[in-house]
Structures are given as structure tokens and as C-alpha cells.
């Protein structure tokens, strides 16, 4: 597998980087952004089409650092590596689940380069697309490769939404969603902030709301978190390297004025992360609340055969992982 040729740029300041993106867009020149490059570089090798310029973000100090504002928020720079996230004392103290989840991603070598921002923006996966060029040449190009067909769901036609059912695989997203994280995005027009839950899109090609000329700068997690915290469990064949075939995060929180709020978020089984919360007061009992949460979130996802586990098995594992981790949280509460 060979890298296609590209122009390399590594701006030193955020403003410089944003001006460069605007200039490239204005001239109609293509570019890709690279943080740790652990998702992007293998993709460039397996899809050897010219990308124009590769803009490395690694020098941008504004995207670095973990800042704890006591009583208010934990702010994570988009360039914080997963290795640093998993070992940082402030993260382990305030949100141990973030640190533990980061430590379950890929391998130590990859976590030393891979970043939290890159994790939220990681490309969706499909067994027909994420292959070597030779493998893909065995069949006609699918929509995501610029063609006019989908091998996973052959009845899909151009104009359908979603056009591509490649699955969302970020491990950190479900945890950050249950913690009500917001993200900050910079462009030459200024900075905008939006809840993470509004960021991802239901299509495996367009994937999220990051626009051209925009850079994800920080992820903010409000304090205090849910009272009994968040737990994440990942279903995979090997205990390292593997992406989640199914990732389940659960949360248990107190509602202002009394009562318990049960939350769950899934990754790996749909085109975007899916999150749901149920209040005990609205359901009557703890058991009914958890049953309702499981029924609702299971209805919202569509697992496809995408590797080791058949879709039926994945469907059966959703309640297993939600109940198992909810019980652990209830014991702690
Ligand atoms: C063998 C292997 C195993 C893996 N296992 C897992 C796994 O178990 N779980 C998992 O979640 N992921 C896994 N990954 C995917 C990937 O390593 C991680 O998701 C990682 O966090 C991506 O971060 P990065 O900094 O390397 O992203 P990059 O590769 O640099 O970028 C990823 C995407 O995000 C964009 N981007 C990155 N940062 C910014 C920014 N600040 N602003 C705008 N755009 C940006 C890039 O343009 C690119 O499109 C694995 C990868 C490999 C190679
Ligand atoms: S789901 Fe997406 S990536 Fe997979 S074959 Fe269909 S269009 Fe291609």
C-alpha cells in the first residue's frame, strides 16, 4: 500500500491554519487535516486518491492541554492523546470512565499518537469499503467510493438518507454523550460551540457537522457529572486493537427535585452514536425504567453483518451489557 503524493503543511498557530484552509478552499484545492494520523494515514494508503494538501495540526497549542475548572468543567484539547487521557490524574479523578475508555482503544502505540478529537471524527467502518485497493477492485465502487451502489444494502438508491450504512465506531463518543459534552469548533468566522449530541449525522459518508474550513478545538465536559457515574463496556474478539463490534455506555443520575435518570449510549451498531435517557418517575419503577431504556435504544439501531458477530447476536448483547453495567452502577449508588 502506497501513500498518494501530497503537499505537507504544519502551521504553528490556529489562525494561520484557518487562513490556510480558507485559502485552499478559495482556490478550489483539496486538503485533509491530520492530528495523530492513526485513522487518516491507513485510509490514505488504502484509498490512494490525491488529497491535495495534508495539514498537520500537531503544532497548534490552542488544541492542547487538559484543563480542570473546579465546579464548572473539564476541558480537553482536541489534540490530547488517548494515552495522556487515560493516565491524566485530573481526568481519572473527575471522570474515571473517560480515562478507562481511552485505555481500551486500539493499542498503547496507537494511543500514544491518536487524539481525542480524531476519535470523535474517526471515519465510519464498512467491510466493503475499509479494504485494500486490490480487494475493493473485486467489486464495483460503492457510494462511499464514488460509485452508484451499496453492497451492504443493495436496494439503496442515490437520494436515500442515509445513503451509506457504514457504522460509527468511536469508543469515546457514547461516554462523552452521556456526560453531556459540548464541542468547540473554530473557523475564520470565529468559534462556535455545540452539544456533542447534535454533531453526528445519520449518513456514513457525510458523518458529522464539521464544515469545510473548520477545526475541532476543544471538548468540554460539565461538572459535576452524573452522581453514580458512567460505565462503558466494549464487545470485541480481542482485548486490544479491535474496534467495538458493540460499545455500550450506561449512566445513572439524580434528577433535580428527586428521582433517578437512567441513560445508555451505543456505538458500533449504527451509522452514528445513539443515546437515550429514561426518568424513573415517568415509568414507575427502576425495572420498568431500565426495560423501557433497553426497548427504546434497541429500536433505534440497525446492526448489519460487519465482521465477527451476527446482527442477531449484537441485538441480544445490547440488553445484556446495559443490565450488567447498570447493576454495577446501582450497587455503587
Ligand atoms: C489498528 C487500529 C485500531 C484502532 N482501534 C480503535 C478502537 O478500538 N476504537 C476507536 O474508537 N478507534 C480505533 N482506531 C481508530 C483511531 O486510531 C482512533 O479513533 C483515533 O483516536 C483517531 O485519532 P487521530 O488523532 O489519529 O485521528 P486522525 O487519523 O489524525 O484523524 C481522523 C479524522 O479526524 C479528522 N481530524 C482529526 N483531528 C481533527 C481536528 N482537531 N479538527 C478537525 N478534524 C480533525 C481528520 O481529518 C480525519 O478525518 C484504531 C485505528 C487503528 C489503526
Ligand atoms: S454501507 Fe457505505 S461503505 Fe458500505 S458498501 Fe454501502 S455505501 Fe459502501
Topology overview:
Blueprint: E1 7-9, H1 14-26, E2 31-34, H2 40-46, E3 53-56, E4 66-69, E5 73-77, H3 82-87, H4 89-94, H5 96-102, H6 108-111, H7 116-120, H8 133-136, H9 172-178, E6 182-187, E7 190-195, E8 215-222, E9 230-235, E10 246-254, E11 260-267, E12 274-279, H10 280-283, H11 286-299, H12 311-332
Parallel strand pairs: 1-3, 2-3
Antiparallel strand pairs: 4-5, 5-8, 6-7, 6-8, 9-10, 10-11, 11-12
Bound molecules: flavin-adenine dinucleotide (FAD) and iron/sulfur cluster.
Iron/sulfur cluster binds next to loops.
> What is the CATH-assigned architecture of the largest domain?
2-Layer Sandwich
Output the helix-strand order: EHEHEEEHHHHHHHEEEEEEEHHH
Task: Determine and state the CATH class of the largest domain.
Answer: Alpha Beta
- How many strand segments? 12
